[in-house]
């Protein structure tokens, strides 16, 4: 019996540890945040900015189920102003009774105004990378205008804007000017590496959002220096693999032809490492299908395919040349990945030139970048011709 | 108890082989990729990791060779033959201290990590205590049972590491491993030193080999055990570097946990892989703690003449208090570094001293015999 008493005392005292659960939060009390937008309100002092954060909470009853449609809006946007992201986030608790829950945060939209300020972007990202509750796979978008407006885009077929944006970014292989989504984990890498990079843009069109094109960020100040248009973004995609596919429109004997790209591979090689005469060779291998043709030639003809391939190659060269010209002459930022290649395969040379790559002597602008493109058309669709030559 | 088939307190050399990685792999590897990446360029750190591992493997081989050449004898008994009794007591206490400190450190780190990632509001002290209570429960049972628990958990830990690596493939970029061979020699040596600290824990061999019946295979088994540790460490290191790149790995507090957070397995249930990973890794950490608490109890018993359980209940509060002493994560990290150095230097030192003396003695004996 002595032993039993001991056991009893142990069991009773152990209830102290079993009774409560410090971290229990009922699911009804949780405010699921799926999207966040950051806008600049004003600059208070040098290096001190007031930003507006907008959190998008999901209202589960608004979503409804498959059988029974939801009633009312499925989301709620709440904005707060402040200087640090974390404190601003805490401010939400003053107006929202639910406890904010970030583990399902999917999309982060940052307005261009934030990016234009030096260092503000990297400062804003700190919380999203540092906080344990947040996942590294949160996707980042840049808004040309107000970021919080983007979180209001609800086409008829969607309920929650953040989810809609997230799904939109899955379609990257459809167009050459949409780049692979960038997630927060990568942002840490980009900022730490101090090499220039691009971020994808989202634009509001009516009640919809349009994903495409990029803005160019300087690697040192993490400040936006410009943006690329549709063609330039496509060219960039071909050079460094940001793009997964898309469509190229070319002319074959005066008739338009649309080539659907199924695979892009690229290889960069630095052939000459002399400070003032860095030579870069980029070969781009593209596989494609014929998707649409307005002409009357037989697409099964080998000669025709050769012509089609040649004009696609020319098109790729044109697009990439535009991009190279813009980033070398106008923006003077190496978003092509030449500096990364130098760091990885010409480490000693890179140590010599890294101070003068984009600044100072500007070796990047004077680098000679050659593009070789090789296009292979595999498939032509299910029909050869749909109209005959006019006699 | 006596009619229980596996109730006898003997173990096989295979259990030693598994016990070694079970003790060694714990909290060290969670932050090790960061410490190595900070010192090296690209993925060069693998050289440091490999060199440190091989050096420790050699020492481990010597330790087990030494202990195996005195089958059935306890550490106190064979070491007093080689060095004098007082010295052997001193050695014994140093090794015990090492295990006690290690277990105190580990229960603290597991609480820190669990608090950061899992329980936001639960007090640190409660998490530590809960974990320690489970460890105490495990240690108060059969010692051979503890070894079998190692055998049970270890394959699961290896499996989760492989799954993690496999699913990281989508995020893995070969480019991140470049440039290669650009790290300076001094940085490599420093990185080797730091990597060595993650191999602390082989001091269990001094005591546990006594329990092995057939000691012939023990040295080979312990080398195999250490090689498993090196293999797993290298795998984790490469996957981390390949997924995050050098700069990010060097700037994440626990790169291995972040890796588990980064990967997402499509299909809902396993989407949150990190929670799954946590559960398994806590098993690894449990093994480390349970083994090091047990070995210190086992080594202390001859001095006290107390029952195992009584001694355990005396030591547990001590471990808990030591674990709660450091304030803040920086002091915890300092304690970790101290334990690493203390553990590696003392265990290696004791091994080298005893091994050399025993070799000389044996040599002399042979000479005598020849005469």
TrEMBL record, chain A:
One Pfam short name: Spore_GerAC
Location of this chain's protein in the cell: Membrane
Membrane association type: Lipid-anchor
InterPro entries: GerAC_N, Spore_GerAC-like, Spore_GerAC-like_C, Spore_GerAC_C_sf
Gene Ontology CC terms, in alphabetical order: membrane
Keywords: Germination, Lipoprotein, Membrane, Palmitate, Signal
Lipoprotein listed as a keyword: yes
One GO BP: spore germination
Domain Spore germination protein N-terminal: start-end pairs: 23-203
PROSITE patterns: PROKAR_LIPOPROTEIN
Spore germination GerAC-like C-terminal domain residues: 220-381
Family: Belongs to the GerABKC lipoprotein family.
Name of the protein described by the UniProt record: Ger(X)C family spore germination protein
Native organism: Oceanobacillus jordanicus
TrEMBL record, chain B:
Annotated Gene3D superfamilies: Amino acid/polyamine transporter I
GO BP term, example: spore germination
Subcellular location: Membrane
InterPro entries: Spore_GerAB (IPR004761)
Keyword Transmembrane: yes
Transmembrane segments: 16-33, 45-68, 89-111, 123-140, 152-172, 192-211, 223-244, 276-298, 310-326, 338-357
Recorded topology in the membrane: Multi-pass membrane protein
UniProt keyword annotations, A-Z: Germination, Membrane, Transmembrane, Transmembrane helix, Transport
One GO location term (cellular component): membrane
Highest taxon listed in the record's lineage: Bacteria
Family (UniProt): Belongs to the amino acid-polyamine-organocation (APC) superfamily. Spore germination protein (SGP) (TC 2.A.3.9) family.
Name this polypeptide is given: Spore germination protein
Origin species: Oceanobacillus jordanicus
Lineage, broadest ranks: Bacteria, Bacillati, Bacillota, Bacilli, Bacillales
């Amino acid at each position: 019996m002595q032993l039993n008493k001991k056991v009893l005392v142990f069991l009773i005292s152990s209830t102290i540890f079993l009774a409560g659960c410090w971290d229990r939060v009922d699911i009804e009390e949780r405010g699921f945040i799926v999207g966040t937008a950051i806008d600049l309100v004003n600059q208070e002092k040098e290096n001190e900015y007031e930003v507006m954060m907008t959190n998008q909470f999901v209202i589960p009853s608004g979503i409804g189920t498959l059988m029974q449609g939801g009633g009312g809006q499925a989301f709620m946007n709440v904005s707060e102003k402040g200087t640090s992201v974390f404190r601003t986030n805490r401010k939400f608790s003053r107006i929202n009774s639910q406890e904010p829950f970030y583990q399902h945060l999917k999309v982060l939209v940052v307005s261009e105004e934030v990016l234009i300020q030096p260092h503000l972007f990297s400062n804003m990202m700190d919380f999203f990378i540092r906080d344990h509750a947040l996942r590294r796979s949160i996707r980042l978008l840049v808004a040309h205008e107000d970021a919080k407006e983007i979180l209001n885009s609800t086409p008829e077929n969607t309920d929650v804007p953040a989810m809609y944006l997230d799904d939109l970014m899955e379609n990257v292989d459809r167009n050459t000017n949409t780049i692979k989504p960038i997630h927060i984990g990568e942002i840490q890498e980009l900022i730490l590496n101090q090499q220039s990079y691009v971020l994808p843009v989202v634009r509001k069109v009516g009640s919809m959002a349009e994903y495409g094109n990029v803005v160019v960020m300087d690697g040192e100040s993490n400040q936006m220096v410009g943006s690329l248009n549709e063609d330039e973004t496509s060219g960039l995609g071909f050079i460094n693999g940001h793009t997964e596919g898309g469509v190229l429109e070319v002319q074959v004997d005066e008739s338009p032809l649309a080539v659907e790209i199924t695979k892009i591979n690229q290889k960069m090689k630095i052939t000459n490492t002399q400070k003032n005469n860095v030579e870069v060779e980029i070969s781009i291998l593209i596989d494609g299908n014929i998707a649409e043709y307005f002409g009357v030639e037989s697409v099964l003809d080998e000669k025709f395919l050769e012509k089609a391939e040649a004009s696609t190659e020319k098109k790729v060269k044109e697009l990439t040349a535009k991009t190279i010209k813009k980033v070398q002459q106008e923006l003077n930022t190496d978003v092509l990945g030449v500096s990364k290649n130098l760091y990885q395969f010409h480490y000693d040379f890179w140590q010599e030139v890294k101070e003068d790559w984009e600044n100072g002597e500007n070796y990047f602008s004077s680098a000679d970048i050659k593009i070789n493109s090789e296009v292979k058309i595999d498939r032509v669709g299910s029909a050869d011709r749909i109209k005959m030559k006019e006699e | 108890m006596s009619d229980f088939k596996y109730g006898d307190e003997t173990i096989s050399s295979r259990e030693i082989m598994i016990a070694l990685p079970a003790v060694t792999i714990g909290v060290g590897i969670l932050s090790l990729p960061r410490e190595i990446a900070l010192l090296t360029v690209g993925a060069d750190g693998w050289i440091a990791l490999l060199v440190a591992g091989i050096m420790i493997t050699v020492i481990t081989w010597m330790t087990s060779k030494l202990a195996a050449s005195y089958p059935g004898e306890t550490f106190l008994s064979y070491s007093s033959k080689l060095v004098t009794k007082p010295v052997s007591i001193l050695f014994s206490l140093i090794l015990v201290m090492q295990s006690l400190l290690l277990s105190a450190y580990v229960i603290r780190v597991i609480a820190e990590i669990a608090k950061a990632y899992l329980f936001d509001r639960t007090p640190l002290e409660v998490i530590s205590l809960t974990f320690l209570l489970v460890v105490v429960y495990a240690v108060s049972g059969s010692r051979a049972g503890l070894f079998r628990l190692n055998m049970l958990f270890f394959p699961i830990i290896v499996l989760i590491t492989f799954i993690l690596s496999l699913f990281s493939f989508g995020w893995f970029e070969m480019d991140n491993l470049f440039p290669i061979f650009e790290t300076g020699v001094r940085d490599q040596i420093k990185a080797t030193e730091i990597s060595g600290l993650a191999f602390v824990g082989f001091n269990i061999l001094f005591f546990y080999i006594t329990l092995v019946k057939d000691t012939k295979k023990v040295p080979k088994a312990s080398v195999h055990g250490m090689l498993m540790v090196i293999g797993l460490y290298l795998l984790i290191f490469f996957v981390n570097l390949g997924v995050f790149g050098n700069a990010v790995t060097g700037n994440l507090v626990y790169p291995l946990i972040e890796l588990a957070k980064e990967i997402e397995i499509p299909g809902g249930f396993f989407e949150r892989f990190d929670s799954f990973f946590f559960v398994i890794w806590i098993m690894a950490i449990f093994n480390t703690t349970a083994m090091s608490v047990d070995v210190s109890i086992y080594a202390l018993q001859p001095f006290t003449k107390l029952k195992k359980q009584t001694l355990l209940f005396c030591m547990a509060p001590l471990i808990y208090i030591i674990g709660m002493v450091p304030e803040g994560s920086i002091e915890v990290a300092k304690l970790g570094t101290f334990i690493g150095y203390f553990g590696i230097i003392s265990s290696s030192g004791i091994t080298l001293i005893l091994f050399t003396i025993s070799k000389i003695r044996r040599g002399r004996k042979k000479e005598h015999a020849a005469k």
